Amino acid sequence: MAWVEGDVVTFGVILKHLRKHRPNWLIDVAAPRGSHSALFGLCNRVLYHGEPEGKYDKAVDLDLEDSYVHFKDRPSSKTVFNLRLQFGLEYDPECGGYEIAVGPEATDRAERWLRSVISPTPGVFSPYPAVVLHYRGGSSKARKDLEHWQGEVLVNAIRQSGRTPILLDWSDSPMDAVRVPDKVWGGFGNGDAETMAALIRLSEAFIGIDSGPGKVASATDTPSLIVWTKHHPARYHDPAPNTEHLIPHDWRGMQPIEWDAEREKFFTENYRFRTYAGEHGLVGEIIQWLQKTLRWEGWLDPGVKFVIPARIESAAWVMAKIRNIAGKRVADCIVSAQPGDSEGLKVVEFVRSFGFFRDVRVLPIAVHQGPEKPRDTRGRYLYVSDGLRDGYHYLVPDTVSQLGKPLADWLPDVPADFEMVKRAEEWLQLTNA
User: Fold this and answer.
1) Angstrom distance (rounded) from CA 96 to CA 78
2) Which of 104, 68, 97, 99 is nearest to 84 (CA)?
3) What is the C-alpha to C-alpha distance for residues 77 and 379, in angstroms, rounded to an integer?
4) Is the Cβ–Cβ distance between 367 and 334 less than 8 Å?
5) E strand or H helix at 273, and its extent?
6) Residue 192 CA to chain centroid, in angstroms?
7) Distance of CA 198 to the CA centre of its chain
8) Ordered DSSP codes for 372-404
C-alpha cells in the first residue's frame, strides 16, 4: 500500500513560512520514513530513523491539530491554524501551497518502473499514458473512502480511455489494476513522498480522495481531482492551481463554510471545484472530468442496474430521486416480481412512463436485506450502497415510506427531483381516478 501522511506534506507549508519569517532558525525535522521525503529542501535536515540527536534550543513535538477556527480571508486548514497556534505566525499567501522537491534519482526510479509497465505515447502531453488512482485511505475511512464498485468503474473507464490505471491502494482493494511494487518506494513497507510525486508528475492525471497522496498530487503540476464525501476541502486541503475538487451538492452547509457568505466567497474565488449528488453521480462527474482532462470521448457506460420492489408507492419514491442517484449515468430498472405478476407489471408501466431508464423489466430477483437492518428478512431497508450483489443496486424505501415519514427522510443526502415528483403524483392521480 502506498502510504504517505498528509500532515507531513501539510507541515511543508509551515516550513515555508518559517523559512521566510524566521530566517535565523536552523530547523531539523523528524518525520515518518517515506513521508519524510516530502520535506527535503524545506529545512536544515530531515531525519526518519528516530529522534533528533544533539543540542537544540527548542524541541517541538508537533501533532497538527484540526482547525476549529473558520477563517474568512484564508484557508480554514490545519496549515493556517497551526501556524498561529504553534509558531505565532499569520498565513502568508506567498508561502502557501504544497511543495515537494523531486530529485533526479526519484524521477529516474519512477520512470524506470513506468517504462517497464507502459510504453510512452508520442504526442501525449505527459510522458506516460497513465492515470494514478487512490480511492481508499488510511484514516477516517468512513468519511473519505470510495466504495470498491466505484473504484472498479473508474479503473474500467481509465482503461477505455487507452490509459493504464495505476492504483496506489494495496491492502484492501480487490481491483485488477497495476500496483506499484514495494521496491519502487524503497522497500520499507509504504510509499515514498518524493517518488510518489515523481510518479504523478510523469502521469497524465491523478484522481484521489482526501488523503496524503492527494496532497502529494497538489504539489505537482499534473491535473488532479480530489473527491470529497463527508469532509470539505476548505478545511483539509490548501488551494493548488493544478487541483480541482469534487464536493457534495450541499457543500454550503458543511464546515467550515456553514452558509457564511464571506467564507463561501473566499472558497469560490480560491478553489476550483465541481459538485455531485449521489454515489453514481459522483462516479459520473469523475469520468466527465477525466474525459475533459484527457481530451477523450466515447465512454461506454455499462449502466447502473437498480432493483426496486413491486409496489407502486415505492416506485413513486424511487422516481423522485433516481435521476440524482444515477447522476448522468445510464440506468436500467428491474422490478422484483414473478413474471406475469400484476402489481409488478403495473410498476413497470409506471416507471417506463418517465422515459428515464434505458430498460425496464420484471425479473424474480430477490430484494436483499441490507446492512442497515441485518435481521430483517423482508429486505425492508434504506439502501444497499456497496453495489457488489451481482452488480445490482437495491432501492427499497419501504421502511421510511410505511412509517409515514416524508420523502426527504429517504436517502437524505440525495435531493428530490421535483419534476419527477410532480409527474409521479399526476400518474398516481390518473391511475386512482
Assistant:
1) 12
2) 68
3) 42
4) no
5) strand 272-276
6) 21
7) 22
8) TSTT-TT---SB--S--BTTEEEB-THHHHTTT
Q: What is the pLDDT of residues 50-94, one digit of tens each?
A: 666 678 888 887 777 787 889 999 999 888 888 988 899 999 999
Alpha-carbon gap, residue 325 to 411, rounded angstroms: 9
| Superfamily of structural domain 104-294 | Glycogen Phosphorylase B; (3.40.50.2000)
Grid cell at residue 265: 466567497
Q: Hey, which bits of 124-192 come out as E strands?
A: 130-134, 164-167, 178-179
The answer to whether 213 touches 168, Cβ cutoff 8 Å, is yes
pLDDT, one tens digit per residue, over 284-319 is 999 999 999 999 988 888 888 888 888 888 888 888
**First-to-last CA distance in the chain?**
61
C-alpha distance from residue 292 to each of 204, 273, 299, 395, 399 (Å): 12, 14, 12, 31, 41
Helix (H) or strand (E) holding 428: helix 418-432
Which residues are registered as beta bridge partners of 273?
245
Query: Is residue 85 within a helix (H) or strand (E), and if so which, with residue range?
Result: helix 78-87
- Helices vs strands, H then E, count in the chain: 15, 13
Query: CA dist 73 to 70, 187, 261, 262, 399, Å?
Result: 9, 43, 12, 8, 45
The answer to whether the peptide bond before residue 256 is cis (omega within 30 degrees of 0) is yes
Please state whether 264 falls in left (phi above 0), alpha (psi between -120 and 50) or beta.
alpha
Structural domain spans, the chain: 6-95, 104-294, 304-432
Mean pLDDT calculated for residue range 342-360: 92
- Radius of gyration from C-alpha coordinates of the chain: 25
DSSP state of 41: T
Instruction: Determine contact, residues 239/97, Cβ cutoff 8 Å.
Output: yes
